[in-house]
C-alpha cells in the first residue's frame, strides 16, 4: 500500500508570486483534502476534492484553488502569495463512500512554504 | 471561533505512567472524533477514533473516552513510552448527508507530550 506523498518538500517564494503544490493520494483512496498548518497551530482546512470537484471549503480566499485529476492526485495553487501564507501545507486522503472508518484521513509529510 | 480546544499546550509524564490528553469541543453536530500524533517534519498520523454514539474505544495502549454531555474527550496512553513523545491533535468531523462524505477535519491546537525516562 502506497502512502500519501507530497512535492516539493520545501519551497521558498517571494511575495506576489504563485505556487503549485502536489499530492498523490494513498492507493485506493478517492478523496483529497488540503490543510494549512501555521507554526504552533493545528491544521486548518482549506478545501477537499471528491470526484474531481470541490467538496467543501474552509475560510480561505479564492486565490487558494485546487484541482483533482482522474488518478485522484491533486494540486493546490496559491496566487499572489502573502507573507502570512508561510506555513506547512498538508494533504490528506480518504475513501468515500465507505464505513465510518472512512472518515479517517491519512496525511502526507507536507510541503513547507516560506514566503519572503 | 475555536470549535475544538486543547487547553494544555504541553504535558510531561514518566515512562510507564498514564498519559491523559484532554480535548473540549463546542459543536454538538460533530459525528466523529479522531486523535492524531505528529512528529517534527512529518504529517499527522492517525492514532484512534470514536463515533459520537459511543463513549469509549480502545486500541492496545490507547483508549479514547467521549463525554457528550460535557462535550469532552480524552486520550489515555497506558503505559507511556518514550516513543510516544510527540504533538497530539484532537480532531472532529461532521458527516455530510447529501454527499455521504465528511469534508473537513477541525483540529485543536495540539498538546506536546514528553515521556521522560
The outline of chain B comes out as globular
Beginning-to-end CA distance, first to last residue of chain B: 38 Å
Indicate the radius of gyration of chain A in whole angstroms.
14 Å
The H/E string of chain B reads EEEEEEEEEEE
Number of helices of chain A: 0
Terminal Cα span of chain A: 38 Å
Mean pLDDT of chain A: 92
The strand count of chain A comes to 11
Which class best fits the helix and strand makeup of chain A?
Answer: mainly beta
Low-confidence stretches of chain A: none
The greatest interface between two protein chains, and residues involved on each side, is: A-B, 32 and 31 residues
Order of helices and strands of chain A: EEEEEEEEEEE
The tally of beta strands of chain B, per DSSP, is 11
Helix percent of chain B reads: under 10%
Oligomeric organization of the protein chains: heterodimer
Percent helix of chain A = under 10%
Give the gist of this structure:
The complex is a heterodimer of chains A (116) and B (117). Chain A is mainly beta.
Characterise the protein shown here:
The complex is a heterodimer of chains A (116) and B (117). By secondary structure, chain A is mostly beta strands. In chain A, 0% of the residues lie in helices and 49% in strands. Chain A contains no helices and eleven strands. In chain A, a hairpin with a 6-residue loop joins strand 4 (31-37) and strand 5. The mean pLDDT of chain A is 92. Chain B is mainly β. Chain B has strands at 4-5, 10-14, 19-25, 32-38, 45-51, 56-59, 62-67, 72-77, 86-93, 105-107, 111-116. In chain B, strands 2, 4, 5, 9, 10 and 11 form a six-stranded mixed sheet that branches. Chain B is globular and about 50 Å long. The N and C termini of chain B lie far apart (38 Å). The chains are: A mainly beta (116), B mainly beta (117). At the A-B interface, strand 4, strand 5, strand 9 and strand 10 of A face strand 4, strand 5, strand 9 and strand 10 of B.
Amino acid at each position: 500500500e502506497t502512502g500519501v506523498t507530497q512535492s516539493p518538500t520545501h519551497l521558498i517564494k517571494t511575495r506576489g508570486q504563485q505556487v503549485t503544490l502536489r499530492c498523490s493520494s494513498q492507493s485506493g483512496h478517492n478523496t483529497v483534502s488540503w490543510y494549512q498548518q501555521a507554526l504552533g497551530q493545528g491544521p486548518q482546512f482549506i478545501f477537499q476534492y471528491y470526484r474531481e470537484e470541490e467538496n467543501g471549503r474552509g475560510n480561505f480566499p479564492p486565490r487558494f484553488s485546487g484541482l483533482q485529476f482522474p488518478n485522484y492526485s491533486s494540486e493546490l495553487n496559491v496566487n499572489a502569495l502573502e507573507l502570512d501564507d508561510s506555513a506547512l501545507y498538508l494533504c490528506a486522503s480518504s475513501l468515500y463512500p465507505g464505513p465510518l472508518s472512512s472518515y479517517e484521513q491519512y496525511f502526507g509529510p507536507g510541503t513547507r512554504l516560506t514566503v519572503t | 471561533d475555536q470549535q475544538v480546544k486543547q487547553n494544555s499546550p504541553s504535558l510531561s509524564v514518566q515512562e510507564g505512567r498514564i498519559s491523559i490528553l484532554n480535548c473540549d469541543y463546542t459543536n454538538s453536530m460533530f459525528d466523529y472524533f479522531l486523535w492524531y500524533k505528529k512528529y517534527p517534519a512529518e504529517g499527522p498520523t492517525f492514532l484512534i477514533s470514536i463515533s459520537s454514539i459511543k463513549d469509549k474505544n480502545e486500541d492496545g495502549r490507547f483508549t479514547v473516552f467521549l463525554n457528550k454531555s460535557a462535550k469532552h474527550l480524552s486520550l489515555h496512553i497506558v503505559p507511556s513510552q518514550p516513543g510516544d513523545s510527540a504533538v497530539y491533535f484532537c480532531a472532529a468531523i461532521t458527516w455530510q448527508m447529501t454527499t455521504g462524505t465528511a469534508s473537513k477535519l477541525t483540529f485543536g491546537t495540539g498538546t506536546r507530550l514528553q515521556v521522560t525516562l
